[in-house]
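Folding Problem: From Residues to Backbone Shape
Fields: amino acid sequence; protein backbone structure tokens
RECORD BEGINS BELOW THIS LINE
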Amino acid sequence: MGRRQVVVVVAVVAAALAVWGVVELTKARRPLTQVAKEVRTLVRRKSVDLPGTSRAEATATWKLVRAFYKKRSDRPAWTDGRGPRPAADRLVEAVDRSRADGLSPEQYEQARLATEIRALSRGPLGDPPAATALAELDVRCTYDYFRLANHLLNGRVSPRTLDPDWRTTPRQVDLVAVLRRAIAKRRVIDSLADLSPRDPRYARLREAFARYSEIVAKGGWPAIPPGPPLRRGQAGPRVEALARRLEFEGDAHAAGRAFDARLEQAVRRYQIRHGLPATGAVDAATLAALDVPAGERLRTIQLNLERWRWLPADLGSRYVLVNIPDYRLDVFDGGRAVLSMAVVVGKRMSPTPMFSDRAVAVEVNPYWNIPAGIAAAEIGPHAQEDEEYLARSHIRVLTRAGEGGEEKDERDVDWSDSSGASYALRQDPGPDNPLGRIKIALPNEYDVYLHDTPAGHLFGSQERDFSHGCIRVEKPVELAELLLRGGKRKVDLRQAIASGKNQWIPLPEKIPVHILYWTAWVDEDGTVQFRNDVYGHDARLDRALRTGAMSTFRINAT
């Protein structure tokens, strides 16, 4: 073939390719318009076969879907009119990565989504898929993105589902704007990862979830055969089983066959991590904790990851945190704990509620406005049997609680009125007042606050759920002094207490107080901590996540 012939052939091929390109461009534009039309119809009718969700969740998610496509004039985001775009594959990858946050890709039908993407992908010379199929895929991807985004942002279950009185402040993010930026900047995976809580304690718990997932995937840890308590100096198959068991979570390393000093120290580490007395001996309570299956421990971590997603984005630069299952209060300043103490919390029948609010003042030598339920159930019967009981206890009868209540004669009280509507009781400051000498005022609808107590011996108990709902603190003066620090008014708390007079001292700044419920967390040094589910909230959350069942649990702080 001559040079001229070659040039002619090349020109013909180029012309053919140009014509093919124009035809393909026209074909691409036409399906894109058709897909947009189908998207509009699907969104208006909400007629896409989507993963099962609750009615409330589906309504909220569809609202986001409609807003997203309205901003785009119904243009598809995950397809280009000829097939799925790379963003769709990135979404599948992001769903798979959600395992690391304790979520389940199966909840978002990841396998089905991946299959549909493959089925609608085509080679460079194939005909484009039907516009309806592409539109359905596009809407499905958008729906799944928003659903996963919401779960990473605020959790799969609203805490109000578990209890109407559980108050939290959810993080607020414009998810429509987030997805629009993610599509424009090709950041689908990163945009979802950015929605997880940023607190390093969440990251550490996430790492623990990965570790325990590996343990479970390998079959978990062996059970220790039943038998009498184990302690230092013993040997035998049960001691060997104990040593192997403690190696799984890193409490023991290369333990021997005898219960020696190293194994005793390993047992102590385990006991401390589980809120048990650090005796070094394996008693019934320690053995019961050791025999909890690895899968249950993994689930506990998973439940607490969910609780982290309920919290506000910022707990504050300086705040008080009470963890009910740990019976502990910590004051944080600049990201580190500057004061820690034991607390007594509400009994199971009068549990301390979970909420966030702000401490506003320290009340020295506080009055106790006795809740109506306690007045009717506990004080009233004593007053009926003993005419001197109220006077001896320094309890006054008022016409009503709060400001404006006037003192009345106890003989005029109808103690059979179980509602307590006809009277109110208030105890004067003093050594017998159950609020002790210090109260941290924390205005909230439950009338729950932090306070001193004359029953200091209760702080020595391992499980400290004894109160009617309020939180008794081990170091009330130290806590009050810390919260008052930085104010212009200098207060000698010990002198104020000694005066016996009631004083209200406003804090120089309102301090956030977070009353939370963590049964699993990870210390800064990587130590994984577990605590008992004292109120049964883990069980309720587990049931809600598995079945969507509502709880009948109610907070009753009185």
Summary: The chain has four domains: 3-196, 221-292, 316-366+433-518, 368-428. The mean pLDDT is 86.
